User: What shape does this take?
Amino acid sequence: MGRQLVGPATAEIKAAVSLDTEHFLRDQPMDNYQTSSVPSSEIAIFSRILKLEDDDLSHDLARYVLTLGFEEKDRERMQKLAEGNQTGSLSLQEQEELQSYVKAGHLLALLHSKARKSIHRKKVS
Assistant: This one.
């Protein structure tokens, strides 16, 4: 089983990842956006690079991707940062670090989404 975010303090990070990922994974295909309205955050760019609408990962690669996750040390750090964020005690550097974890979580969620879609397609085929 893959490593996942756990613990009550990481709920804030999981919610941010989920909400922001949903924003970029709308039913609207990316090529329907006009150039001026295409989101340009790192996660939006990665979602276009990954071509999330495609389900072209091999079964073995998709299963491997689903095992990827944060290590215990990172989960502990995210929990500490999330707690500090809730109390408003993070320094600017810590806020940036938390944002980096959130972005990494977004990318991981995008990769997991593509992997699940690929596995589902292979089961249906």
